[in-house]
Write a structure and sequence with these properties.
Length: about 325
């Protein structure tokens, strides 16, 4: 059975696996556009105003169950069971139920994400964003699911209209809240690995910019992320953060997009080959990075004096460089 056939049969037959209270609702298969133009399909049961949220349950993992030998009716039973669990999930911000949310509530969860602009053209058409070189900064908010699991949502133009604030206000509040609730973390690579494997998960407080003086300025590589180590690459677009790091290291910087979660920082040297670094990043992305978490195949440069992030080019190419022909940072 193909995945498309599975989706069609699921939409047609799933409702009979739900209890009576769901029978007046309509089963729909909806496609959702995720990061890097990746499209996922999920099941959605519309038609009930009694719940604070109507979940959309992605179906790829259930199709994999079918591929692994589980009976189709057993797969549908699992989908119905999991959907009902999601339906009853409590979603909160700062302890406030989604029924009572307004902008002042959502502001407490606001954050900024960095994405590839070219790979997300359709996605960006539907949400407020800001361009930083070939990167796009988009805005969203964090929630707690059943008081523990962290979830998130992107703010599109429909949500922005409901919130009743301007794009500029949203951007300002998102950056301010993120810097306070999930500040940047900068450590040399060796210290970061030690903390990841030997400290408590997420314990990277020693890497906060308040402790920047403790960072070894002569290390080979550094990691820039945030205190949660999730979606932390966005700080490469923060001129204030990057300027502090450049001053500490006494150098212009090369920024390697490891993933949407972190970047690798190097001090720029004369014998550094941008072409080789680009090739390395592309190979690592292809072999080891989830497609939804890729940030790019090309490296960036932060100019210490100009306090500006730009695409890195070979020094020999700088005179012939034409922005319209440059590779896109993905």
């Amino acid at each position: 059975m193909t995945y498309e056939e599975f989706l069609q049969l699921t939409e047609k037959n799933l409702k009979r696996f739900f209890p009576e209270s769901f029978q007046e609702r309509k089963v729909e298969i909806r496609e959702v556009l995720k990061n890097n133009n990746i499209k996922l399909q999920g099941v959605y049961l519309s038609g009930s105003p009694s719940y604070t949220s109507v979940p959309l349950l992605y179906l790829e993992s259930y199709y994999q169950e079918l591929e692994n030998g589980k009976k189709l009716e057993d797969v549908w039973q699992n989908i119905a069971r999991d959907y009902q669990k999601c339906q009853e999930t409590a979603i909160t911000i700062d302890g406030i139920s989604s029924k009572e949310w307004n902008y002042e509530t959502i502001k407490k969860g606001l954050t900024v994400y960095v994405r590839n602009a070219q790979e997300n053209v359709d996605f960006l058409a539907d949400c407020p964003h800001e361009i930083c070189e070939d990167l796009a900064l988009v805005y969203g908010f964090h929630v707690l699911v059943d008081g523990e699991k962290d979830g998130s949502a992107i703010i599109n133009y429909d949500r922005l209209k409901w919130l009743g604030v301007s794009e500029e206000q949203l951007k300002q509040d998102a950056w301010e809240n993120m810097k306070q609730s999930n500040p940047p973390c900068f450590l040399d690579l060796q210290d970061m690995l030690a903390k990841m494997y030997f400290d408590e998960p997420g314990d990277v407080k020693a890497g906060s910019l308040e402790h920047l003086e403790d960072v070894d300025p002569n290390a080979m590589m550094y990691v820039l992320t945030n205190s949660n180590q999730v979606n932390g690459a966005v700080y490469m677009c923060d001129e204030e953060v990057m300027s502090l790091i450049a001053e500490k290291l006494g150098s212009d910087l090369i920024v390697i997009p490891s993933s949407i979660h972190e970047t690798i920082i190097l001090k720029e040297t004369e014998n550094m080959s941008v072409r080789e670094l680009n090739a390395m990043v592309e190979a690592v992305n292809a072999e080891a990075v989830n497609p939804q978490e890729r940030l790019g195949n090309y490296v960036y440069r932060f100019d210490r004096e100009a306090q500006r992030l730009e695409k890195a080019v070979e020094q020999a190419e700088e005179l012939d460089f034409e922005p319209g022909m440059s590779p896109v940072f993905a």
